[in-house]
Design brief:
The chain is of the alpha+beta class and 188 residues long. It is 23% helix and 32% strand.
Length: 188
């Protein structure tokens, strides 16, 4: 039994023996430990980035509903629009402006302000309506531009209305009533 205790006593670590064993282990495994440290350092520094890739600006189109192409002085034509972006970012703002280069008239956002030539107005919704009121009997032409707040390619379209007098017909067929013959009232 004393031999077991002698062996245990011989295995007892003294501070000097612990230091020697630890330094030998470090010497033997230094290459491996250096490799692990290098990999951890590379992973930590290459994967950490404060930059997030958040797309804010999306291309968009504007759909315009059909509208009348003829207008008389004093008449109002309603134009309906819907902005259709390719993606959705909640902080996107859209503005509208117009430039009239033929005829006289006013362009007004329905439930909004009258637009001033070449001034930007903030749109509150992606669906909106404009009313154009003719102030002359000439032909009317104006350009409408819709832009977002990220400076992406703006949407633009020219609107043309031909002036017509109230006596002009729509170019349709004139219908003449057929002579129904002699009508005899029914007596009771």
């Amino acid at each position: 039994m004393t031999t077991i205790f002698n062996k245990i006593g011989a295995m007892r670590l003294t501070p000097r023996r612990f230091y020697l064993d630890a330094s030998k282990a470090l010497r033997d495994n230094f290459g491996f430990m250096a490799l692990v440290a290098a990999i951890l350092t590379a992973v930590c520094f290459s994967s950490c980035s404060d930059d997030l890739d958040v797309q804010q600006s999306y291309p968009f189109t504007v759909e315009v509903m059909p509208y009348a192409e003829k207008i008389v002085k004093g008449q109002t034509v309603e134009l309906r629009f819907e902005i259709r972006p390719e993606g959705n970012y909640t902080n996107t703002l859209y503005t509208i402006r117009y430039f009239q280069y033929d005829g006289e008239g006013t362009l007004k956002l329905v439930d909004g302000p009258v637009l001033v030539n070449n001034d930007r107005v903030l749109l509150e919704s992606k669906t909106f309506r404009l009313n154009y009121t003719a102030k002359s009997s000439d032909a009317h032409k104006f350009l409408v531009v819709v832009e977002d707040n990220f400076g992406s390619t703006p949407w633009e379209q020219t609107f043309e209305f031909n002036g017509k007098s109230e006596s002009d017909d729509d170019g349709g067929v004139t219908i003449q009533p057929i002579n129904p013959g002699t009508l005899t009232p029914i007596v009771r």
